TrEMBL record:
Record bears the keyword Membrane: yes
Stretches assigned to the ABC transmembrane type-1 domain: 75-294
Main localization, broad class: membrane
Family, similarity comment: Belongs to the binding-protein-dependent transport system permease family. CysTW subfamily.
Tree of life domain: Bacteria
Taxonomic classification: Bacteria, Pseudomonadati, Pseudomonadota, Betaproteobacteria, Nitrosomonadales
Topology within the bilayer: Multi-pass membrane protein
Keywords for this protein: Cell membrane, Membrane, Transmembrane, Transmembrane helix, Transport
Localization of this protein: Cell inner membrane; Cell membrane
The name this protein goes by in its record: Phosphate transport system permease protein PstA
Species assigned in the record: Nitrosospira briensis
Gene Ontology BP term (one): phosphate ion transmembrane transport
A single Gene Ontology CC term: plasma membrane
One Gene Ontology MF term: phosphate transmembrane transporter activity
Amino acid sequence: MKDKDLSEIRSIIARHKLWDFIFMILGVFVLMIAVLTFMALFSHMLIDGMPRLSLDFFTSFPSRRPGSAGILSAWVGTTLVMLVTAAAAVPMGIGAGIYLEEYAPKNIITEIIEINVTNLAGVPSIIYGLLALSLFVHQLGFGQSILSAGLALALLILPVVIVATREAIRAIPVVIREGAYALGATKWQTVWDHLLPYSAAGILTGVIIGLARAIGETAPIITIGALTFIAFLPPSPIKPDFPFISFEWLMAPFTVMPIQMFNWVSRPEEAFQINAAAAGLVLVVMTLTMNALAIYLRYRMRKNLKW
């Protein structure tokens, strides 16, 4: 090889390294902007809301007096709504993902479904609220209840769960499937005994990220008619009498943390702004906890797998 050719190769490599370095600096700069912005907002919320956090704040109902107002009905409503959301979205989303990836025939209809599922993940949440208002509240007669809210948020995160399930299953090496089929396993045995255990970490991550998104959504909840001020709790899911489980709470009116924050932020008094900061701090901690749980469980599951 001539010296001229070697010089050109070195020049190309140096130019590519320069662009790699520029891109790395740009990426770090953008990341720092995002992280510093979040830290600034979170610090402001922490400074304003931390003094307000107390046991009374968690065990008191909302009030017109900011000093005695709490988030009891809001966090209870959020917990129940997320319970319905998880119960509806997780089995349906995982099942749909398994079917599309392993069982659905590869034809034009399946391709159309896959494209629409992917596109639905980016639809604004208000659209799901309008759909839930028409379908669950009016057509099915569920009313402005916990059930309607949970199903609305389930529709919102369903595409996320489906896509996460498909990507997690798709990442499993083909030799896992071929080995199972070679030993005489059926399609379902291959999915249940091999694909799902190996893809569980990725599926779980997608599920928790979807739930973390749903817990902070406001537009669908407002659309279906969540109450902005509620000073009572829904009926308890657990009863002292047989059969010990009650579903009356599903049809109860409700409020959630984002709605309670919106109610306080819209008030002019400074004390209500502090209450909103404290509620926001609780909501951020809940969201970060869910994401941290996803990371931890994914790490543990991948560590225990043997390829």
